[in-house]
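Job type: complex structure
Entries:
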Amino acid sequence: MGRPRTPLLDRGRITTAALELVDAQGEFSVPQIARKLGVQTASVYHHVDGRDGIVELVRERVCAAIDSSTLGREPWDAALTAWARSYRAAFAAHPRAIPLLTTSPVRAPKVLLQYEQAVALLLDAGFALPDVMPVIIGLENLVLGSALDMAAPEAMWELTDEAETPQLARALAAADLRTEAAFELALTGYVAQLRRLLAGAPGPAA
Amino acid sequence: MGRPRTPLLDRGRITTAALELVDAQGEFSVPQIARKLGVQTASVYHHVDGRDGIVELVRERVCAAIDSSTLGREPWDAALTAWARSYRAAFAAHPRAIPLLTTSPVRAPKVLLQYEQAVALLLDAGFALPDVMPVIIGLENLVLGSALDMAAPEAMWELTDEAETPQLARALAAADLRTEAAFELALTGYVAQLRRLLAGAPGPAA
């Protein structure tokens, strides 16, 4: 019997295989990755820090598409807006990774460094220390909710004779249903709210 | 051999089984439901309109927890705010259902009727017909992004020696990380933005 063919295995190939599985099915298992790469499951474990380590490699890969140089722009509100758009685009390319990554703690060093940049931006802008993480989390909710929405079917509402919905029908016919309009509306509102928070008036403008 | 025990099968029990599977694993299959209920897969299909029909039953069940009477309140901004909070709470109870339900068209009559109510509320408030669906979609992005976040681990950021993140460490230590703060900030900003949209000034306040 010949020696089995052993393809070169590295973290990059493992990450690619894991992300392909997540894109296709929303999840991955280490044996699935091994099968995809034609290697033994134990060989995969030899290269990574367990299954959680693979999740972090996937996070790092997806987040590498976020243009973090946006966080260096001025003023802070333009920086945050540009970062949010880039963040959304990165996750819109992998919407099925969102539930996986949001239910697992962030440990990837490069991703933590991006949060460090965002925190520094907000502190420099004058946000109170206790407000900084809620501000970032609120922005992420909006970004990821919208990125998830980009995986929605083209025709999201299928009207039926069983429910009388004449106004919904009119609204659907008249609307620009590209998700950009909704995202920009929410993002504009959020950044305006942050300006009010910074000015010391957290309540809504009357 | 005795006749196999055939438990009573109905749509309610099928929905419960499907939602339990979704809560546990983010997905369901019809054979899994059948196994859970101790029946043949074909028997399940006898009661529902295919797999998609089960998705709609799950949607109806999750959305039944939304208090749609909030949409009858006045003024419109209070109504929308109350609806958003109730909507978020309903999905926060089943965060793993979010990716499943947002990637499948809405066909459940009761859920379509709730959209009809939301559309009527916004039209009555004076929103332009083409703006109505983007306004609803933006609100849903925010609501579902936040509900998904409620499935996040308590400690979402695990700092490491491999990344120098002193300001992130300070911000985490100082922050109220309950997701409510971030959601209320985003919701307040969104509703304020809608007031500006209604007043004919869609741009952010300078």
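Summary: Chain A has ten helices and no strands. Residues 129-149 of chain A form the longest helix (21 residues).
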